[in-house]
Amino acid sequence: MKSVNTYQGKQVLILGLAKSGLAAAQLVKQLGAKVVVNDQKPYEENVAAQELEKTGIEVVCGHHPLELLDKADVIVKNPGIPYSNVLLQEALKRNIPILTEVELAYEISEAPFIGITGSNGKTTTTTLIYKMLEEDQKQPLIAGNIGTVACEVAQKATKDNVIVTELSSFQLMGIEKFRPKISLLLNLFDAHLDYHGTKEEYIKAKANLFNNQTSEDFAVINADDELVMKASADVKATKVPFSVTAQTTEGAYIKNETIFFKDEEVMSLKDVVLPGKHNQENILAAVSVVKLYGCSNEAIYRVLTTFAGVKHRVQYVTTINKRKFYNDSKATNMLATKVALSAFSQPTILLAGGLDRGNEFDDLKEEFKNVKAVITFGETAPKIERVAKEAGIQIVKRVDNVKQAVSEAYACSDEEDVILLSPACASWDQFKTFEERGDIFIESVHKLK
């Protein structure tokens, strides 16, 4: 890793632990900072804080005292902590820089970054890019939301590597210098409005990905998404658009059931095993990125003829008595659920609900044509029920949790039905993560056997 003196002798406040806070605290201490960690979880229950304290790091748990700001030169915050937090509001008034650990990762990394963001499809696309580069022996490392914390990965990266990084709007709000060699903005949709306040602020956070790029860098953008095109209007990087609907000869597109990059034929679309038309967008985005990085068509072909998808993203689970079960727990907003529903022409039983972020679910109606039943749970159950009933769905039932939803869905299903968990909501009202929600769904499905 690079030797940097940015934090030497500085007072760094780490706000929030979890994986990113823990990694950030350890890194800035190594870089010579005086570190204080502040976490809401009580000290007696906070194993990570106790371990850090043993290394000489000061920990303050259970509350966020404003006095911590008196000596803070910089704050590195957990991405999930909103800027409405009282301590952060006061820090902003005092002009104390507030970063996320991705910024630390960039500062110390010898390797260039590929930064991937968007409202939906990030994990699938990040995985595709990583696998294609790996297949072509480009020595990629994977980081961010999808894998290991970025500042951990950056410590072991060399100039021969490239760090493929999935980035959330939360992370992108906390960058100052972060500059990916290749940036990718997949799509934009109303999401995380409880965190950002407005759609405009959410889009602004996503567009931070482009802020520090120059004409020597590349910005891969979705030409089919008006909001993406608007958000990238003033980008200084070389724009590389991709499109499912048009022949964008500056990037990736589909022509005669064949994937092209610029004027080069890459492979036949019929050989791709990743299911669903919605994944064509992810594929074209990935192809654009890896071709810019010099990836061979042979490596792309080998990945796209074998990669069938990632866990929790329209993941086939099993078939029981001719009912097919799919886990799409990563669908934490309406667009993701609409995309999942559009992948099926069979009668579908939808399991949905979760954290209430203040939005309604009327946009789901247009994809309810094949939905025969809706089973709801969580804080948003009443809102989803209203939309389902207005759409004319006859079977609408509310249960307490995902386990009950699986049993209820099976009870009202028939042979050849699809039973789909695609919540359209974040999981935090009942679960720690969407992965936990998906794993409980899978476990409950297998118990039906």
From TrEMBL:
EC id: 6.3.2.9
Binding site for ATP: 118-124
Domain Mur ligase C-terminal: 312-425
Gene3D superfamilies per the UniProt record, alphabetical: Mur ligase, C-terminal domain, Mur-like, catalytic domain, NAD(P)-binding Rossmann-like Domain
Compartments (UniProt record): Cytoplasm
Catalytic activity: UDP-N-acetyl-alpha-D-muramoyl-L-alanine + D-glutamate + ATP = UDP-N-acetyl-alpha-D-muramoyl-L-alanyl-D-glutamate + ADP + phosphate + H(+)
Biological process per Gene Ontology, one example term: cell wall organization
Top-tier EC class: ligase
Protein name: UDP-N-acetylmuramoylalanine--D-glutamate ligase
Provenance organism: Priestia aryabhattai (Bacillus aryabhattai)
